[in-house]
């Protein structure tokens, strides 16, 4: 199936006392580019997140937003630093002796001194946290892929319509060529009659001129190649997968053939058809930029 490079996905996952919310949005980009915004304490998961996303996304610029809530009541614990407390006591005694003051230090006073008591966050189990985060990431990724597939179907239908129109233009160029040759032969014959009067016209000479003219304006090779490129692009769209770059290359080759047809055109109708082909090819190329 064909996937667009734009989409949005969101998933919340609450397991026990941990809750993750993951949102991700993707836009067009030539390569796979991920920007992750999450709490600093989860930064060690960045490599794992990038690796997991590659299972769902091959191309595109993806912004990932992760929020984390921990409702664990015993997540923090109080720590007593005896060494720091001892330093305070020593200096209080030294101050009392130096300045002749009463040493009235109490445990409640000492407890309010900086760093004597500290709150420390309990070390969390990385495997447990990753299990919750991974489930949220996968849910958001699947939603993103679904959105990309839905838009990809619309792109595919639009491209097929444009490609079928281009095939009709190619057929028009091919059908017009014999008419151009017949018209040229007729005009050439009339011109020679006008110049020679009643003198007998040499058919062989007329035929030779027609052959030279045909060689200059013949677009058989270009139309055959262009038709082949169009059919090849349709086949790639049917196969699906990550074909954006391949389609872009085919579109470049299609444009090359259309340019040659236009340069060889010696007829207004053919020129207009070639211009229309170039216009449609450009539209196709624009749409292809949205395909993964």
Automatic annotation (TrEMBL):
Keywords: Endonuclease, Hydrolase, Nuclease. GO terms for molecular function: hydrolase activity; RNA endonuclease activity. Signal peptide: none annotated. Residues 2-156 form the Endoribonuclease YicC-like N-terminal domain. The keyword Flavoprotein does not apply. Its cofactor is a divalent metal cation. It comes from the Bacteria. Residues 173-292 form the Endoribonuclease YicC-like C-terminal domain. Pfam families: YicC-like_C (PF08340), YicC-like_N (PF03755). PANTHER family: UPF0701 PROTEIN YICC. Belongs to the YicC/YloC family. This is YicC-like family, N-terminal region.
